[in-house]
Design a protein that fits this description.
GO terms for molecular function: sequence-specific DNA binding. The protein has 153 residues and is an alpha+beta fold. It folds into two domains: 41 residues, Orthogonal Bundle (Arc Repressor Mutant, subunit A); 80 residues, Alpha-Beta Plaits, CATH 3.30.70. Helices cover 39% and strands 18% of the residues. The protein has a four-stranded antiparallel β-sheet with strand order 2-3-1-4. Helix 1 crosses helix 2 and helix 2 packs across helix 3.
Length: 153
């Protein structure tokens, strides 16, 4: 069930999604409120789980990660034990930034950041050594056209 979020909450969230390091005074000025109500709303949204956490968004290339792969995983296994093993492996791998279970011909998609193709191969070899996978297709991202962590409000 969605938390109760009003228009002022959405304005505050929009500001936080752009820059969570802004001062409360800056946010309050931009959303047309004062500091204490803004602080109280942020606190309430944290407690309600609307705001999950605050993180730093790093530049992959600045960290030597030059290759982003989208990994399509198809499985012939649909038992709970297989899924648990697969999810445990995926969650442990730091190269996997996102993992989604899909409807359709592909069962899972992973977003994987690595240094280069050789590093991707090492990731792939480790993955298939830990869990049986029917088919894996890796798609190399040639250019990031849009990347955001901001949800549409």
């Amino acid at each position: 069930m969605a938390a109760q979020v009003d228009e002022l909450d959405r304005k505050i969230l929009a500001e936080l999604q752009v820059d969570a390091e802004q001062s409360l005074d800056e946010i309050a000025r931009k959303v047309g409120s004062s500091k204490t109500p803004v602080w109280n709303r942020i606190k309430r949204m944290r407690e309600a789980g609307v705001i999950k956490r605050t993180v730093a968004v790093c530049d992959p290339e600045g960290l030597g990660l030059e290759a982003c792969f989208f990994v399509l995983v198809r499985t012939s296994e649909h038992e709970l034990g297989w899924e648990k093993r697969f999810l445990d492996v995926v969650r442990r791998r730091p190269e996997v930034l996102e993992a989604h279970r899909l409807a359709g011909d592909v069962d899972y998609i992973l977003k994987v950041w690595v240094k280069n193709a050789r590093a991707y191969d090492a990731f792939y070899q480790a993955l298939i050594s830990e869990v049986k996978i029917y088919n894996v297709t890796a798609l190399l991202s040639m250019e990031e056209i849009k990347m955001t962590t901001a949800l549409p409000l």
